[in-house]
Amino acid sequence: MAQMKKLAALFILLITALSSGCTNKPNRYQAEFISLFDTVTVIVGYSESREDFTLLAEKIKNKLEEYHMLYDIYNEYEGINNIKTINDNAGTAPVQVDGKIIDLLEFALEQYEATGGAVNVAMGSVLSIWHDYRTRGINSPANAHLPPPELLREAARHTDIYDIKIDKELSTVYLNDPDMRLDVGAVAKGYAVEQTALWLERQGVTNLLLSVGGNVRAIGGKLDGEYPNMPWVISIRNPDKSAPDSDLMSVLIADGSLVSSGGYERYYTVDGARYHHIINPDTLMPSDYYEAVSVICPGSGMADALSTAIFNMPPKKSMNYIESIPNTEAIFIFKDGSIEYTSGFESLIYSNQ
Amino acid sequence: MKLAKKNDIIIIAVVALIASGLAAWFLIKNAGAEKGAYAEIYYKSRLVERIHLTSAGEREFSVEEVPDVVFKIYDDGSIGFIKSDCPDKVCINSGRLSKKGHFAACLPNEIYVKIVAEESTGADIIIG
């Protein structure tokens, strides 16, 4: 009898602990916007009230917008020197820029060297040719063409990343080749997300999920999960959009990043074959080893650069490369639908499909 | 000491019971989740259309504000962009959306569609 009472007391304690945990929890909110980085941004977080969360979301948007304007290669903004300004002054003059641009370019140079050139921000001349042919091909499918190889090869002569001359003291960037153009598309979003997340952490934010076009960065875990501070559940959509299962799998991430690269959304079709937007620096053609890859590692900048880099590497090389980096995992989705992942990836899987 | 040990086992059993109860509850919630799925269509951050997908039936439509963008609802309760005057067609290539958390956008047209539901499917974010 006495034992039963004890049990009953314990049970009640557990229940109240669970339910009081629920009532004292701040509410969960989600914000989305499509105005930055040519993609969809999603913020998931917790606040006492909708007003508080709106303020937080606006702060995040403003911070991301700073990076968006600085890293833009297409548009000019009044009073700001950005990547486009650097490109417009290629071979002409050094451009004084915000330190955030110099930090990004130095990070990009590090990743270029670490990956043996598999991700190169100095490839703008080549990428812009593909961009033009893709846009025209989508606009007029009957007249879709591939860029002539000689045109690509000529452009590729102006992609030496060491022609980016940075003067940290004067905070200037100069492209020492008039035909060279920067395209930071493979690293800028992830880097901006990472810097924004670090800034939020400094502001005392402890539980938040930020995704800019699939560049996902988690601060802490979630507060409304199955257990306290449970990792966020990140579901990865099936790159094969005709597959019956719309989602491939979900993974658990706390204090980490996930970035995917694939050719399944941004592409055009020539003579029945798809040509996507991730261009291999060696072949100057769309990389065709994988349908998609995803990288999980602590920093979003790193995850973004690595996902592009391994997308451009043959399977064995990419696998070995990711295995050589601590706290970094990857999944490789091949064109036939088969999947491979690095040794530590399986432990992060929450559910298959 | 012996008694304490016995109690421990019971406590664990109770905890396990609660845990499995929770798991079952989550599964039930998930199983029913897609039934209440709605597609919300936003134009310039304003909600312009909310459609109960499972009862919508197969059809094609546009929202008044953006007649050049065409959506299709399929008979399995999914929705997708099928036509757009945008230059990159990423919206169409995003495929069919059916689960809570799926989203797609046509940025040049400032139009955004996401799937919402009263019940959660468990994922905090779905990326493609």
In short:
Chain A has 353 residues and is α+β, with helices and mostly antiparallel strands.
How would you describe this structure in keywords?
heterodimer, A: 353 residues, alpha+beta, T-fold, 9 helices, 36% helix, 22% strand, B: 128 residues, mini-chromosome maintenance (MCM) complex, domain 2, 2 domains, 2 helices, globular
Task: Characterise the protein shown here.
- The complex is a heterodimer of chains A (353) and B (128).
- Chain A is built from nine helices and 16 strands.
- In chain A, helix 2 (50-70) crosses helix 7, helix 7 (188-202) runs antiparallel to helix 8 and helix 8 (300-311) runs antiparallel to helix 9.
- By secondary structure, chain A is an alpha+beta fold.
- Chain B is an alpha+beta fold.
- In chain B, 28% of the residues lie in helices and 34% in strands.
- The longest helix of chain B has 32 residues, at 2-33.
- Chain B has a four-stranded antiparallel sheet with strand order 2-1-7-6. In chain B, strands 3-4-5 form a three-stranded antiparallel sheet.
- The model of chain B is unreliable at 1-34 (pLDDT under 50).
- In chain B, a hairpin with a 4-residue loop joins strand 6 (103-106) and strand 7.
- The N and C termini of chain B lie far apart (55 Å).
- Chain B has helices spanning 2-33, 90-93, and strands at 38-43, 46-52, 59-63, 66-73, 79-83, 103-106, 111-116, 125-127.
Q: DSSP helix count of chain A?
A: 9
How would you sum up the global shape of chain B? globular
Enumerate the spans of chain A where pLDDT stays under 50 for 5 or more consecutive residues: 1-23
Query: Roughly how many Å is the radius of gyration of chain B?
Result: 21 Å
Chart the SSEs and their pairings.
The complex is a heterodimer of chains A (353) and B (128).
Chain A (H helix, E strand, L loop, with lengths): L1 H23 L2 E7 L7 E7 L2 H21 L12 H6 L6 E2 L2 H16 L9 H16 L9 H8 L7 E4 L4 E4 L12 H15 L5 E5 L2 E5 L12 E6 L9 E7 L3 E6 L4 E4 L2 E4 L15 E6 L2 H12 L3 H9 L5 E5 L5 E3 L7 E4 L1
Helix pairs in contact in A: 2-7, 7-8, 8-9
Chain B lengths: L1 H32 L4 E6 L2 E7 L6 E5 L2 E8 L5 E5 L6 H4 L9 E4 L4 E6 L8 E3 L1
Antiparallel strand pairs in B: 1-2, 1-7, 3-4, 4-5, 6-7
